[in-house]
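Quick illustration, no need to memorize.
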Amino acid sequence: MPIYYLETKEKLIAAVVSVAGWVITFTVLTLLKVWFMHAIALGIFVALIPAAFVQHFNQRWVNNVEEKLPDFLFDLASLMGRGISFSKAWEILTHKNYGLLSVEVRRAYDRLSWGETVEDVLDEFVRKLRIPTGQAVGEVVKQVVIAGEKSYKSLIDFALSLRAMLYVEREARERTYGIMKLMYLCLGALYATAWVFIKNFYPTILEASGYFITPALSLEDLKVTFYLFALTSAIGYGFIVGELCYGDFRNGMKHLCAMVFLTFIVFYLMDVITWM
């Protein structure tokens, strides 16, 4: 079910569950004597991974609906152009496959058959779609219904324009995938810097100073500093990927979770190798 279907109360419950998941994970790992930075990272991952999955599948739903919507509108206009009434044309289209959009098409026809007005049905149909172009779709179809079947050509033009616009948006989105790669490369560079500094540079400085620097800057403090820097960078990069590559920062939560978990893996290996 798309995340847009969730009401305010359910969204609040989901937020509380996420916070509780982080607290429980952090508490359990702390009691198990896991290093507190690992506990923080895994807590963030556990708290956000459910929301990341929901948002991922919601975006797939939206993409599928946007892809099939121009075909649906074009077929609707074509049937109306043959002299078929709006209600009958909609009924015919309930038997065609428009992917996930077919579910809402059938629900809308059920409301039509129950005697609801076309305006109310279209308003509910658009509300269920919850896509950026949904409001425009509803207004155009309403105008076509009001003007009669002879205005079907305007609906065809709108469907073709919508298809072209979505194609341009898809092409523009694909060109931004380089930003995603850049964010992962930047995070990888941060990992490499932390690894070299902790494994090579810090021991050299420590030895050259005759170990007098130890009370001021311990290895533990250095690792915590780099760990926090990497975690905050992972969270920021994840949201940047969502905003620039998908148009909504929430859609970057799956990348955020991946980067946080990758940060945990890198510093866990660094911790193991450091003390071997």
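The chain has two domains: 65-170, 176-276.
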